[in-house]
Design brief:
Layout: E1 2-7, H1 15-29, E2 33-38, H2 44-48, H3 55-66, E3 69-77, E4 80-81, H4 83-89, E5 101-108, H5 116-127, E6 132-133, E7 137-140, E8 144-145, E9 154-155, H6 157-183, H7 186-191
Parallel strand pairs: 1-2, 1-3, 3-5, 5-6, 5-7
Antiparallel strand pairs: 3-4, 8-9
Helix pairs in contact: 1-6
Bound molecules: flavin mononucleotide (FMN).
GO molecular function: FMN reductase [NAD(P)H] activity; oxidoreductase activity, acting on NAD(P)H, quinone or similar compound as acceptor
Family: Belongs to the SsuE family.
Pfam families: FMN_red (PF03358)
């Protein structure tokens, strides 16, 4: 099982990336391999000018084509997902999320825009033909304490419980999808 993790924060130090990294570690403990990208893995001009010929964009699309699922993490910016995440999603091939299970993750300053995953991110994922979009995780900044010299990274206990529940649902859905795909006769699979 293999997933691609996309980090949508423009910041190197980032709460949404902390949730993403925790998720990747959790999945690896459950035997799921991953490939991670953030905005920092691309040349800014390639993102700004939608350069589909960029080697890093081609590599991302190759990895996505092989993936069973995708995690998309983003900060909430102006009641939507981040602009830099949009520039990455714009470069995913047409129908690029076909047959993929998607787990969205968002962090925000307040609860005010907790519906942003549904009204902003969901439509673009649907346009890319994802098979299933899970409910995902929404967290506020005060639920995530960065590690300091004296304490490790801390998630609010309720957030941690929701995160693990979502990750377990993601794992179960990936396994279910894999089993169903394998059950289809190869000739039929070719025709789909
Ligand atoms: C430009 C900008 C716009 C933001 N807009 C919102 C917003 O509309 N609603 C909200 O709740 N938080 C907003 N925030 C706060 C961020 O969503 C929040 O701090 C988030 O956790 C940052 O994620 P990151 O640490 O992964 O970059 C905004 C922050 C910035 C810098």
């Amino acid at each position: 099982m293999f997933i691609v993790a996309i980090g949508g924060s423009p910041n190197q130090k980032s709460r949404s990336s902390e949730l993403l990294n925790y998720s990747i570690d959790y999945l690896e403990h459950h035997g799921i391999e991953s490939y991670t990208v953030t905005a920092h893995d691309f040349v800014a001009e390639d993102l700004l000018y939608a350069n589909f010929n960029s080697p890093s964009i081609k590599l991302l699309n190759e990895k996505i084509a092989k993936a069973d699922g995708i995690i998309i993490a983003t900060p909430i910016y102006k009641a939507a997902y981040s602009g830099v995440l949009k520039t990455i999603l714009d470069l995913i091939a047409e129908r690029g999320l076909l047959n993929k299970i998607i787990l969205p993750i968002a962090t925000a300053g307040t609860h005010n825009h907790f519906l942003a995953l549904d009204y902003a991110l969901r439509p673009i994922i649907t346009a890319l033909k994802a098979k299933e979009i899970l409910h995902g995780i929404f967290a506020t900044d005060n639920q995530i304490q960065y590690a300091t010299s004296t304490q490790p990274l801390l998630f609010d206990p309720s957030l941690k419980a929701r995160l693990i529940e979502s990750l377990n649902e993601f794992i179960a859905t990936l396994h279910h999808q894999k089993t169903n795909t394998l059950a289809i006769h190869p000739l039929l699979a070719e025709a789909i």
